[in-house]
Amino acid sequence: MSTSNRQLEQQLRQGFKAFNPFMLLLWRLGLGSWVNLWPEGGGRIMVLTHTGRKTGLRRRTPVNYAEIDGELYCTAGFGQISDWYRNLCANPQVEVWLPAGWWTGVADEITGQPDALPILRQVLINSGFAARSAGLDPVRMKDAELQAATANYRLLHIQRTAACTGQDGPGALAWVWPLTTFLLLLFTLRNLLKPEVK
């Protein structure tokens, strides 16, 4: 990899790391379907909850995905150096936050399998601006070009196992909206009912 490509990759990694907490906040506020409102631009995004391979702590990572014949696929675009990818290699048990639900699942790497390239292409198409920012055009690139450009990418299949419920999933902070609305209503009523000072 050339120095300029390494610098671009480093900038992209830092950019995504800085943006991920904001993306997670939107999901926790119950806005997961809004995050996925414009897939051509912003991409299709799900959240993976995985276990830190060193700490044992739960980690959450927003990733682009494709759903093909009911199965979920995502890619580690930075390859084997991605922390979340290494965590899944150590412990493939995950939780998946999707716009339509919250699931437990098992991650399995399928990089190099015969049907991997068309699946990877669809994940990249579904990534919106993310693929373009990495210099990829998954719609127009020929198979050989795409394969060469994504040689370091890792493709994962997430098999959903059971639906989840509880307090710590997507929308856990959705209570903020009624509270905010109530406080704004009180503030508005207070200002409307305040006597005018002459």
Describe the 3D structure.
This protein has a single domain, classed as Roll (Pnp Oxidase, Chain A). The protein is 41% helix and 25% strand. It is of the alpha+beta class and 198 residues long. Strand 1 and strand 2 form a beta hairpin. It contains eight helices and six strands.
Tag the structure with descriptive keywords.
198 residues; Pnp Oxidase, Chain A; six-stranded antiparallel barrel; 8 helices; 6 strands
Number of domains: 1
How would you classify the helix and strand content by structural class?
Answer: alpha+beta
Could you tell me the CATH topology label.
Answer: Pnp Oxidase, Chain A
Sheet with the most strands? 6 strands, antiparallel, barrel
CATH architecture: Roll
Beginning-to-end CA distance, first to last residue: 73 Å
The run of helices and strands is: HHHEEEHEEHHHEH
Rounded Rg: 20 Å
Q: If you average the pLDDT, what whole number results?
A: 85
